[in-house]
Description:
109 residues, mainly alpha, 71% helix
Amino acid sequence: MRCVQIALAVVAACKPGGVSKVDELCSKASAMYAKCEREPGMHPQEWELVIDRWRGLCRAVITGETSQLLPDGLGIYNEMADDVKAALRTQAECTAQTTTCADYQACDR
């Protein structure tokens, strides 16, 4: 019975229509960030937290929604000036379209 309840909860949590455009964009942008900005010597779990923070900040600067942010990410977001949020949004939109680190780096220009 417990398995049925869990399965129903998982199904109910799924969004109709699949992944949102913002989630897709931020996922692609964070994947390129992970590929092209890797910090040598950083513990893999620390790196995953960095990537997760970037993905959450990406969603926040595009949608204004911050409920998904952990306290440190929320603090970063709240301290950002509007022009920084706009630049991060532009950066995410650009990097989400890249497939190589050279293209990714070009988004900084």
